[in-house]
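Box 3.1. Reading complex inputs
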Amino acid sequence: MRLISAILRNYRLHRELKVEFDPSRTLIGGDNETGKSTLVEAIHRALFLKAKGNTESHREMTSNNGGNPEVELVFEISGIKYNLIKRFGGSGTVSFSSDHRSVVTGPEAEAELASLLGVSGKSGQNQWAHLWVWQGKAGENPSVYASEKQIELFQQLQKLGAAAVLQSDLDNRMSEGFANIVDEIFTNSGKAKTASELYRSETELSDAEKALQVANARMQKLESAMQEMELAKRELPGIEKIQTDLQKELTLLEIREKEIVRLQKEEAAKLYDSRTATEKYNELAQVNKSILKFDRDVQAMNNSLQPRIDQLSRLESSRDALKLESDKAEKEYREAVKDQQSARLLYDFAQAKRQQFESSETLKKLKEKEKSILKLSKELADTEEELSRLPKIDKSFIKKLQGLESALSEAKAVLHGMAAGLTVIKTDQNLSAGGHSIKEGEKLILTEDTELKIGKVILLRITPGGGTSLSEARQLEADAQKSLDEKLNAVGVKGIQDALQVMSSRDELESKINSISTKLSVMDAEQLADELKTAHHDFTAAESRLERMKNQIPASGIAIKNDEIKEYENNMRLECSASDKREAATRKQRDIKLEEWNSSTENFTQTKLGIEEEIRNRDNLKAQLDLLIDTHGDNAIRTQKIVEAESVRDNAEHTLKRTVEAISVLQPDMLELDKKRTTRAIQQNSDRQTELQKQVFSAEVILRSDGLEDPLEDLNKSDLKLKRAKDNWTGINRKAQAFKMLDELFQNEQRTLSDQYTKPLAEKISGYLQCIFGAGTQAQIRFEDSEFSGLALRRAGYSGNTFNFEKLSGGAKEQVAAAVRLAMAEVLAAETDGCLPLVFDDAFAYSDPSRVAQLQRMLDLAAGKGLQIIVLSCNPVDYAGLGAHQIILRDKQSAISQPQTDNDSVNENSSGFASESNLDFAQKNRIPTSLEEEELKKQLINRLTEMGGKAGNQTLRESLGWEEAVYDSIKDGLIETGSVLTGRGRGGSIILSDL
Amino acid sequence: MKATFIHTADWQLGKPFAGVEDQLKRSILQNERMEVIRRIGNIAKENNASFVLVAGDLFDSSTATKSTVSAACSAIGSIGIPVYVIPGNHDHGGAGGIWEQEFYLREQKELAPNLHILLKPEPVELENAVLFPCPLLRRHESIDTTAWLRNFDFEGKSFGDKPMIILAHGSIQSFGAFSDDEESEGGALNQIDVDQLQMKPFDYIALGDWHGTKEVGENVWYSGTPELDRFPKGNEHKQGNTLVVSVTKGEKPEVKVVETKNIEWHEFSINFTDDLGLNYLNDELKDRIGTNANKDLVHLHLDGSLGLEAYSNLEIILESFKSRLIRLKLDNLTTISPNSQEMESLTQRANDPLISRVATKLIELSDSSDNDEASVARIALRELYIACNTK
């Protein structure tokens, strides 16, 4: 079938629209709302909706322009052209005619049309769903449509070489039957179901295995009990013998122990004896030794004492001799002292005598000197009397007088020197000076201011000496005279000559006084009285001394004279000095001797005391010695005793040694160890014995058969039971596996058969898909349980992966679905004249521009195979490559009739869409072009900025009123260029980038 | 002096025959082992034997049940003449063995006073003979139990002209590593060096352990078991006999083999080359068993292949005989493979493409090198065949 032309009248927005279809490729373009979909809807309704009716569909197609909607359709089937006119509505009419047939109308026409189109049952939009891609249905799985057309499809597919026979009822029964059996035996996971025989045999098998294990364990227990018992019984006699031997050994050890104890007691006693004897012997020996030592000591003391006694007597004689010498020296010393006293008395006397003489002489001289001093003192007093009567004129007074005199002279001289001389040499006028008239030739001395009158008019003042000084000089002179006179008068002299005279007399008297005073001072008049007193005292003292000595002095002495006294005194002095010397010498001698005697006496006394001490010691020693000898007897007795004690001691030691040796032979140290060892061995052996007896006992318990059943028999039975269970299981399992195999084979073969039917269809689909997805692309589709299913795509270079239709992207779904429709149409077209129309109304909304380009190859291929391709798009420029006949619909105002059908209209159309103010493609799931994309990007950015630079995806999209695909595409583009960033959070958000 | 006695061994009383599933059938086998003792008693009487020698394995296990012990004592007691027994590997004389069990001792005293268990390796002098027992004192003895006889000092003993008879249990050197005992692990254990004994002045060596009757030397015999307890190994393996021995000091003994068995143990193989082989099997079984029930045991080896239908028939035959026989031990290696007709009926189904394809696939799989897969495929094929022919 091929559509040739369609005319719409009063159909929705179309008042009248005529469209002529290309036999192969028609592209219907036009903006939205220009009635593209309405056009194809009208054609579909003309074909499949009865004209007469008042359904929703009928009402929908009514035009605002009034009048009944009418569609006039011309099409061709197998070279016959048909003309169909339908006027829809409650009183709708239909008119159907063809080249070979006159017009029929009404129900007859409808019936004929339906029969021609192969329509059965209800009319409606679902008719020809495999050929008619309604807007928005492009991505639906086309298998559904294929299933609807399966009978026709198979008829055609069988013709195309799928010669296989359809499976029979028996086939199906078998297949289902085996599937049921397998389902009864196995669970989904392939295990045996509990109700199955297989499960029972498996259980039986595992039970048998367990039973065998139990029987085996029981048998093994018996056998090991048997073995243990045998071993224990074999070992036991040996153990018993060892035990007896050990007991014997222990008894021997106990006997030995007793003997050792006895010997040790004996050893203690012997040891005591030996010690006692030794002590006794040692005591005796010690005493003897002491006695001998004492004896030796006494002897030694005696020996050392004798020489010392001799020495003492020598010391005594020496001491006595020294006593005599000392006494003699004492005597001599006393005599010397006596002599010394006599000499001293005489010398004292001589001295006193001389002093008496000397003091008497001095007294006499002093008295004479006293007289001379009195005479000089009288002379001095007289002279001083004389001097005191003269005025006290001295040289300085004279000098003052001389000074006054010369001052007077000077004052007179000055007075004379100052006076001016006036001499009148000639005169014709009367002259007066100082009131005194002076005549010619007169001379005057002027000493004071004088007025000089010459004639009657001339008056002159003369001032001698420059002024007033003339009177001062006259005063000075008077004063000087006066001073001099006053001075002279004070001393009573007339002038200087007189004064000089007085001064000379005074000098004379003063010299005399000085000379007398000098004499007096030489004679030391002041000390004379003291000297007189001293001299008098000395004389008296000497007199009294002499008086005291007079009785002791020999007469010769008393009679001595003044002139002899000095010699006498000297002699006496010498005599005194000699006696002093002698006294000192004898004293010294006496002291030495006394010292010697004292020392000797000390020595003697000490020596004597020492000897006495020694004697006392010796006597003590001797006393002890004597006591010892008294106690222990004399040497002979003692020696006898010692010998006896020694013998006793030696005997005791010998006995002891024998006992010790006897003990040592019995090895007491080892005994304890031996005992311990033997006891331990007995214990261990006994333990072992008990252990073995226990073993025997417990083995006996195990082995004591209850005799009800034979474990060996049981084991054999279990073994065989297991074998049987295994055989049984093997058989059942084999059978179960056989059913499984049957089921699988049936399923596999069923699939293989299905593949045979669908293979030509799949190949055709693949052919179309290869236009888009390239060589090697394979489509899969299965026919199972009277349905097409498993539509899938396999592409070259995707590692053999198969993509199920439902998993494909929106775009790929559209494309694959289109391929299936084309393939089906191609197959079904063979039923009639090899042609069927395919309508794609906005069928590739999700496909990107490059895919759309590939799509055109696919559509072109279909057209090439005889199909009539009709594509509707608001974007016809995308299909420029299809090389289709284009029809552009204008908007309703201008779309009254003839649409543009030339190529120029494409340009017009493309510029037209830019004027679409609201870019409605964004709301209609169409993928925008790049130009549009830029506009949309701007919109998105602007809106995002208004929203504060950040917004959730959903909020933003809803705010823009865009479809999700459009929004995502634009947003992804912006993210790619970095204009916006992906935000965080559920649902996703975007953020305006700083860029 | 001449002594006539019965030489027997390996009674293995109480043997469980666990391979026989049916309790009743198992009892038949077990009872028959008791019954043969009475038959031996009869033979002894008929031959005027003065005693019976049992060369080991009187009981099947050291843990025989009380009922076995009582039945055994009762049967032995019925013999009437002394029965001398040595323990074998099944009923060894070691610690905890059956011979020590109180119950046994009690029953023996009461029911079988003529039973003498010889547990010590020392001569037992009888009126007309001297026995030299070589008892096994543990299940697996690594030393030769007859070793004590090699250095036995005959000088000091005077047995007069009484024939000297050895009683021993084990395999002999000349059998190599081959033992007749099902449980024996092979040569090394319980070995008897008979050659060394033949040098000595013994008149007869009565051996046990080997279940077939066998003359090892002119005076060395295995009596074999008097009643079969297993399928015989090979045709030369004659079981089910008892020996009547007459021996005179220094002379070759007279040995008479008397059959004592009652139950038949058959063993045979059939290789199916075509479906007609089934008839042959049927004939063979009928020949051997006749119309008997519960009197025979059969060990059947099947091989070759049968068609799907023939195999179902085989199963019917086997079902019958399994019931009639005391035991049908079956080694069935028969493969199921459809014959050409069957194959055609499965694969050539123009109207059932699915079944045809599945059958073709299964036939392919049944030739698989994977045995498991192949046998599963054969079963599957059979199931498919059945399903197709019943529906």
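In summary: The first strand of chain A starts at residue 2 and ends at 11.
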